Amino acid sequence: MAARGTLVIDTERCKGCELCIAACPPGVLTMSGEVNETGYRYPELHDGCTGCTACQIVCPDAVFAVYRFDQT
């Protein structure tokens, strides 16, 4: 599936629940080996994101911002 947008992750808001990992249809999110300032591991984005917004929908901490590409 072609990319429909781009994803921005606010790593400092993340509490490491991993709901986004489970929700990601193409499986392009993994948990980082690093931690944020509050001590939580956060998701990292790898190539293949389709911009589907599944991660944004399930995230209880509003970590994700999905910006859609103009399709015109």
From TrEMBL:
Lineage: Bacteria, Bacillati, Actinomycetota, Actinomycetes, Pseudonocardiales
Key words, A-Z: Iron, Iron-sulfur, Metal-binding
Molecular-function GO terms, alphabetical: iron-sulfur cluster binding; metal ion binding
Pfam families, per database record: Fer4_7
Top-level taxon: Bacteria
Protein name: Ferredoxin
Domain 4Fe-4S ferredoxin-type residues, every copy: 5-34, 41-69
